[in-house]
Design brief:
Layout: E1 3-7, H1 11-22, E2 26-31, H2 34-40, E3 46-49, H3 55-60, E4 68-71, H4 77-90, E5 94-98, H5 102-111, E6 115-117, H6 119-132, E7 136-143, E8 146-152, E9 160-161, H7 162-165, H8 167-171, E10 174-180, E11 183-186, E12 193-194, E13 199-205, H9 206-213
Parallel strand pairs: 1-2, 1-4, 2-3, 4-5, 5-6
Antiparallel strand pairs: 7-8, 8-13, 9-12, 10-11, 10-13
């Protein structure tokens, strides 16, 4: 079982910690504010009040032994940079750090973050994509020019198999799952039939996804 440390329990950090805990992972949650720590105490494996910029405090908590540390400190850039640097020096295997902007992200990467995330920007992109298209329910950027979308199956899809639709041949797009009400079928086969109301989870290049959207 993987062990995680989540440092900073604002909206983003607490959401990450809760999701990891629900998935059965061991989670050490750390924040400088006692109230936030108390809120998470019943959710995660350990919740501790500590200063993330205090190397000795992080050592004492055994942070160096976790598989992944998530630095999700809010508006204090200096604290997030310091915490990332300390985690790197402690030898944490993988560090994911939340950035407020591109400059902050560049510094985090320089001091040791293995992955930098931009939750506010990414959420803004997802909302914008969903507003621009009535077909796309959700949008996740995997890499530049490569995404996963949730797409409402239009009438031209109804009662046809994935083989008949030929989305991979026509657009280079893979259907990862089909959502039907409360059910979800992962890795559907070529003979699976699309029904009215189905939602397709599709992965591919953005330009091909846009072609599918504008078909």
């Amino acid at each position: 079982m993987k062990q995680f440390a989540v440092i900073g329990l604002g909206r983003f950090g607490s959401s990450v910690a809760r999701t990891l805990a629900r998935a059965g992972a061991e989670v050490l949650a750390i924040d400088s504010e006692e109230e936030r720590v108390q809120e998470m105490a019943a959710v995660v494996t350990h919740a501790v009040q500590a200063d993330a910029t205090d190397e000795e405090a992080l050592k004492a908590l055994g942070v160096r032994n976790v598989d992944v540390a998530v630095v999700s400190i809010g508006q204090d850039m200096e604290a997030s940079i310091m915490a990332t640097l300390i985690l790197k020096e402690l030898g944490v295997k993988s560090i994911v750090a939340k950035a407020l902007n591109d400059l902050h992200g560049k510094v985090l990467a320089k001091v040791g973050a293995d992955r930098v995330v931009y939750p506010e920007r990414d959420m803004g992109m997802r909302v914008a994509h969903s507003l621009l298209s009535g077909n796309f329910l959700d949008y996740i950027e995997l890499a530049p020019n490569y995404s996963i979308v949730e797409l409402v199956a239009g009438p031209e899809f109804h009662h046809k198999t994935l083989r008949e639709l030929g989305l991979r041949a026509r657009y280079g797009i893979n259907i990862m799952a089909i959502k039907r009400g409360e059910e979800i079928k992962v890795s559907p086969g070529a003979e699976d039939i699309i029904m009215e109301g189905d939602v397709l989870v599709a992965m591919g290049e953005d330009r091909q996804l846009e072609k599918l959207q504008n078909r």
